[in-house]
C-alpha cells in the first residue's frame, strides 16, 4: 500500500483535523506548522506571528480510496477562501489559508479547483487562498494532536467561532 501526503492551512489546525480524519481513505491527520523560517518552532513561537509559519494539517492518505482532488474539495468546505488574513475568529498570518503542494500534479489540481470555485459564483469576493510549494512540516506539540477528541467542549467553542455558520451559509444553501 502506497500512501501520499497533502498539507492544508485554514485557520486553527484544531478545526481542520476532524473533517479529514473522519473521511474514508485517510490514514492520519497531524497538526503542525509550515511555511516559516524557524526550525522546529513551538506553538508559543508560532502564535506570536514572527516565525512565518502557518498552522496546518498534514494528511496521509491512500490514493486508491480518496483522491487528492477530493481532499482539496473537502478543504474548500472548511475555509473562507476570500479571507487572506486569517480564518473566522483566528486572525493573523499564521492562520492564513494555503494549499501547500508537494509537486506539479498537486499544483495543477489545486489551481484547477481554485479556478472552478472562483467561476462558481458562490462567493461575491475574490478567492484569495494561496497555493504554495510545500515547506518543512513540523509537528505541533502532543496536546494539539486530535484536539477535537481530547477536549470536545473547547473544540465545539472553536467551531462556534464562525466556521460552522459560514459553512451553513455558503456550502449548504
UniProtKB/TrEMBL annotation:
Pfam families: PMSR. Its EC number is 1.8.4.11. Residues 150-173 are annotated as: Disordered. Keywords: Oxidoreductase. The active site is at 12. InterPro entries: Met_Sox_Rdtase_MsrA_dom, Met_Sox_Rdtase_MsrA_sf. The keyword Metal-binding does not apply. The keyword Oxidoreductase applies. It is an enzyme of class 1 (oxidoreductase). One of its GO terms (molecular function) is peptide-methionine (S)-S-oxide reductase activity. Residues 5-156 form the Peptide methionine sulphoxide reductase MsrA domain. It catalyses: [thioredoxin]-disulfide + L-methionine + H2O = L-methionine (S)-S-oxide + [thioredoxin]-dithiol; L-methionyl-[protein] + [thioredoxin]-disulfide + H2O = L-methionyl-(S)-S-oxide-[protein] + [thioredoxin]-dithiol. Has an important function as a repair enzyme for proteins that have been inactivated by oxidation. Catalyzes the reversible oxidation-reduction of methionine sulfoxide in proteins to methionine. PANTHER family: PEPTIDE METHIONINE SULFOXIDE REDUCTASE, PEPTIDE METHIONINE SULFOXIDE REDUCTASE MSRA 2. Belongs to the MsrA Met sulfoxide reductase family. This is Peptide methionine sulfoxide reductase MsrA. It comes from Limosilactobacillus mucosae DSM 13345. The lineage of its organism: Bacteria, Bacillati, Bacillota, Bacilli, Lactobacillales. The gene is msrA.
Amino acid at each position: 500500500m502506497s500512501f501520499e501526503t497533502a498539507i492544508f492551512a485554514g485557520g486553527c489546525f484544531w478545526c481542520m483535523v476532524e473533517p479529514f480524519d473522519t473521511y474514508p481513505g485517510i490514514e492520519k491527520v497531524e497538526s503542525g506548522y509550515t511555511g516559516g523560517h524557524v526550525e522546529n518552532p513551538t506553538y508559543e513561537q508560532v502564535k506570536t506571528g514572527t516565525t512565518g509559519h502557518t498552522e496546518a494539517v498534514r494528511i496521509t492518505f491512500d490514493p486508491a480510496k480518496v483522491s487528492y482532488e477530493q481532499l482539496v474539495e473537502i478543504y474548500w468546505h472548511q475555509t473562507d477562501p476570500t479571507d487572506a488574513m486569517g480564518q473566522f475568529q483566528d486572525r493573523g498570518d499564521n492562520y492564513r489559508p494555503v494549499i501547500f503542494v508537494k509537486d506539479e500534479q498537486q499544483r495543477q489540481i489545486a489551481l484547477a479547483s481554485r479556478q472552478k470555485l472562483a467561476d462558481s459564483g458562490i462567493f461575491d469576493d475574490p478567492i484569495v487562498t494561496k497555493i504554495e510549494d510545500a515547506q518543512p512540516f513540523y509537528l505541533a506539540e502532543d496536546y494539539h494532536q486530535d484536539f477535537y477528541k481530547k477536549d470536545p467542549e473547547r473544540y465545539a467553542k472553536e467551531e462556534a467561532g464562525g466556521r460552522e455558520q459560514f459553512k451553513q451559509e455558503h456550502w449548504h444553501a
